[in-house]
């Protein structure tokens, strides 16, 4: 049972931002990388993507690596567009929920992401709302900026220590079970957002009169 929550850590993709990994897979298959699903998925990814998500390689190095994997010459824009194909939209209702929660809770954004996706998802939010995603949170932790990624326990420990949070008063919401287990190790309360679930329909419901 979830009780005593003062701080909430949100994942981004699959929790706030709608995503579809299959769209990126299909886009790269069309570009000649037919085994893309073996390299990258929600459950696992090759070392190249780990390095990109922890800032150990640059956007240019990532694009060059993807170009080398393809069987045909690709432009940087083709790689970027295919990589961003998974990013869909962020429903207004979810932003409204964040605004409402922030009046009573500390809100943290924690995302395994990368330089290319950061530019893209900020554009999605700003185009629809004329504000950056960071405006809805007290603090934002992006893996490529801090050199750490989920499910490493160290990233959750850092958030707790830097913000003075106690694990038992902290809730973490994510759609990947391996990330949930990382947070649970420290005693953080967790909600695994399973396929078909959304925060607006299954977690933060309007109060009934």
Give short descriptive properties of this protein:
209 residues, Rossmann fold, DNA polymerase, domain 1, 2 domains, five-stranded parallel β-sheet, 45% helix
Structure description:
The longest helix has 15 residues, at 115-129. This protein folds into 2 domains: 7-17 and 91-202, Rossmann fold; 21-84, Putative phosphatase, domain 2 (DNA polymerase, domain 1). The protein has a 5-stranded parallel sheet with strand order 3-2-1-4-5, sandwiched between helices. It has helices at residues 21-30, 36-39, 47-53, 59-69, 76-84, 92-102, 115-129, 143-146, 153-163, 177-184, 199-202, and strands spanning 7-10, 106-111, 139-142, 170-174, 189-192. It contains 11 helices and 5 strands. It has 209 residues and is an alpha/beta fold. The model has no long low-confidence stretch (mean pLDDT 94).
Summarize the model shown.
The protein is of the alpha/beta class and 209 residues long. The chain is built from 11 helices and 5 strands; from the N terminus they run βααααααβαβααβαβα. Strands 3-2-1-4-5 form a 5-stranded parallel sheet, with helices on both faces.
Topology:
Layout: E1 7-10, H1 21-30, H2 36-39, H3 47-53, H4 59-69, H5 76-84, H6 92-102, E2 106-111, H7 115-129, E3 139-142, H8 143-146, H9 153-163, E4 170-174, H10 177-184, E5 189-192, H11 199-202
Parallel strand pairs: 1-2, 1-4, 2-3, 4-5
């Amino acid at each position: 049972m979830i009780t005593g929550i003062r701080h909430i850590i949100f994942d981004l993709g699959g929790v706030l931002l709608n995503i579809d990994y299959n769209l990126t897979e299909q886009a790269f298959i069309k570009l000649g990388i037919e085994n893309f699903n073996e390299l990258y998925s929600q459950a696992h990814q090759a070392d190249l993507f780990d390095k990109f998500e922890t800032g150990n390689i640059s956007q240019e190095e990532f694009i060059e690596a993807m170009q080398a994997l393809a069987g045909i010459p690709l432009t940087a824009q083709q790689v970027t567009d295919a990589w961003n194909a998974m990013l869909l939209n962020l429903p207004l209702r979810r932003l409204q929920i964040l605004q409402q929660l922030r009046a009573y809770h500390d809100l943290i954004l924690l995302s395994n992401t990368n330089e290319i996706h950061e530019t893209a998802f900020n554009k999605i939010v700003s185009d629809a709302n004329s504000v950056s995603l960071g405006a809805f949170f007290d603090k934002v932790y992006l893996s490529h900026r801090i050199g750490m990624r989920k499910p490493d326990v160290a990233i959750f420990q850092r958030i707790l220590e830097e913000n003075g949070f106690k694990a038992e008063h902290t809730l973490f919401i994510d759609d990947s079970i391996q990330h949930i287990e990382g947070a649970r190790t420290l005693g953080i309360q967790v909600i695994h957002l399973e396929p078909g679930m959304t925060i607006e329909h299954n977690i933060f419901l309007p109060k009934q009169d």
